[in-house]
Amino acid sequence: MWSWVRRAACAMLLVGLLLPVRAAIAQETIKIAFIGPFSGAFAPQGDAFLKQLQYALEAVNAKGGALGKKFEFVTFDDKLQPAEALIALKSAADQNIQLVMQCIGSNVAAAMIDGVAKHNARNPNNRILYMNCAALATELTEDKCDFWHFRFAGNVTMRVETLVRALPKNITSVYLINQDYLYGQSVQGDLKRLLGKNRPDVRIVGDDLVPLGKVKDFSPYVAKMKSSGAQAVITSNWGVDFNQLLKSGMETGLDVGYFTLSAHLNGAPTAMGEGGANRVHAVADSHMNIPTEQGMKEAEAWMQGFRDKTPEFDYIWINFRTMFELMQAAINKVGSTDPLKVALALEDMKITDAFGQPNVMRKEDHQLLVPFYQGVFTKPVKFDSEKTGYGWKTETTVSAADLTQPTGCKMKRPSGA
User: Fold this and answer.
1) Which residues does residue 234 pair with via DSSP β-bridges, in sequence order?
2) What is the C-alpha separation between 401 and 411, in angstroms, rounded?
3) What's the whole-model pTM score?
4) How far is residue 156's CA from residue 114's CA, in Å, rounded to a whole number?
5) Which residues contact 332 (CB under 8 A, 6 or more apart)?
6) Which of 33, 72, 142, 312 could form a disulfide with 29 if both were Cys (CB 3.0 to 4.6 A apart)?
7) In CATH, what number does 157-292+371-403 get?
8) Contact 264/316 with Cβ under 8 angstroms?
9) Which is nearest to 138 in space by CA: 186, 72, 192, 71?
10) Which neighbouring-strand residues pair with 374?
11) What values do phi and psi take at 378, rounded to 5?
12) What is the pLDDT of residues 194-243, one digit of tens each?
């Protein structure tokens, strides 16, 4: 009798001990290391990216996350420096985080691709999948392509193709100014090539590369633009380099159109204000007024939710939500967060984004094929930018199919892939 009682008591005790363990397992999250600039000149971009990523992540978590677990960010500051990013990568690996995201700076991304590949070769039992959501130089999915790297944003060539297609026919002279690092150099090369191919009537009357984040006064560049007689300035400058360029142009009365890849990023609408109205154009992954323009009530409500929560800047990266939805689908498909299994599931995966547009993660180079939009800074619009009274209105939409080009990627695949 007492033997049976003792056995029952032990069993109950064991169950009691196991319950907290099972509860802890149930509450476990899927961690994503987000490496970005959270200090220095480009810290505002790091903060803006994180807030938009978090909003997109909340939408996916609200739909169950993956494997019954929610996604969670662990942040690391890279100061927009490749060496710092590699230190952060090692720290993430030491914490056994399998999913690592870096989005800002193609120079940093190039180092990350190499760092992740080397780590995975040395640590086959502790591999990492690199999620790139906005480091855009085309080379990253061409000669620098790697199996462990997936880019969840359109590349430079797709963006420049959209800009060239949308350039008004009456503009025949342009001035190019870009940042002097991998991304800016990639834009410069594609602009020259695609203008020559598609708009041979356009003359390039000036061409500058500026050191990243180092120029405090852009007035000498603006003076050159004035003297060149350019009808338009084409630039991929972003962050402080774009804001200062626009500020100087507005202050000195530079009478040109601006065709950009970054005028929609945080801080830029404030920098240009009323002076940018109807003459600043931006090629973008998305802007907040697209759902209203297309009568998409659910997507419009989602944008309104972001505005209510974060009124200081726009939500401009719809691909962030697409990225997490793809990751959710891939992880649930294979029932694991193992980087190799997830990578194989992502290849050639198709998805419809929040605007009803088809996206495909191309297997050959791990480049997401997406549509692009060019908008003009104007009013009235449903959602203005940074309380300026002006916001973005779509001028041109180019489908993913029209932007898809053959890839030269020669990807080395790991054993078993």
Assistant:
1) 176, 259
2) 23
3) 0.90
4) 20
5) 66, 67
6) 72
7) 3.40.50.2300
8) yes
9) 186
10) 283, 396
11) -155, -175
12) 999 999 999 999 999 999 999 999 999 999 999 999 999 999 999 899 99
